[in-house]
Amino acid sequence: MFTSHRESFRALKRIPNRRILPGVLALGLVLASAPAFAIFSNGGFEQNDFSGWTVAGGTNPGLLGVEPFTSASIQIAPGAPGPSAIVGQIADPLAPTIVLPRVGQLTAKLNDENGGALVTTLVQTDTVTNADIDAGDGMPHIRFAFAPVMDDPSHAPNEQPYFYVSVKNLADNSILFEQFAYSGQAGVNFLNGAGSWKYLEFQNVDVVLPLSAIGQQVELTIVAADCALGGHGGYVYVDGFGSANVPPPAGAPGIVEVPVNKPLMLAVLAGMLGLFGWRARHARA
Length: 285
Ligand SMILES: [Ca+2]
Ligand SMILES: [Ca+2]
Prior knowledge:
Elements (H helix, E strand, L loop, with lengths): L1 H12 L7 H12 L21 E6 L24 E4 L19 E4 L7 E10 L5 E2 L4 E13 L10 E8 L4 E9 L8 E2 L4 E3 L3 E6 L8 E9 L8 E9 L11 E6 L3 H14 L9
Parallel strand pairs: 11-14
Antiparallel strand pairs: 1-4, 2-3, 3-13, 4-12, 5-6, 6-10, 6-11, 6-13, 7-8, 7-12, 9-10
Helix pairs in contact: 1-2
The protein binds calcium ion (2 copies).
């Protein structure tokens, strides 16, 4: 990716006519800042489908155990997967301040506002390469944005709609990033949507990987679940999966940067996330 940018720019610089130089420079800048969605296939859903992704799911029998819930609490019973869709420029009356699409022309929506105790999962595995290194810090990055929108029927916590997002290194099964919350969960700064609906603005995630991750496989997982009792829905918008910066949204961005394999930094991060009411975890699966 970077090589091709350099070659393009070098080729352009050979053009001798000075009068076209400003235009050439502008084009060079455009090329240099083109999004490098190197790591994930169709990471921005701009193909208007789920090519490159595995969409699955089933039904939600409720979360296992008691709080705090983790990935180990998630149960998905066999059954038809929950719904999924690609959306463009739409308004969401349940979450009126969310701006769609988030990046480019299209954004993925996992699950929906209807009940049925359904679960939708979205997974993609890919290999980290040198193309995922950010020239800014010399480290590989995984970046994306997500926004959960969930009804809050005030069921028991394990029966509420919930969402889960994780980035896992398959080489050692370490969780590089994960976030879980059920609707209305204390400590998560949900915004009030229509009626009993709760939501979050798009959260920008920036996971900094160690250099040792080059050549290793990472797995992205997103889970969006209706309530376990069948009457209430929940969904998650996701977009911009790749190594390039997710451009700022129309509203105020909340960038969550997650350095890995640096315990001190993680402690600092946990403190920062505390400001947002998030629970940060560096768990082993
Ligand atoms: Ca997109
Ligand atoms: Ca649903």
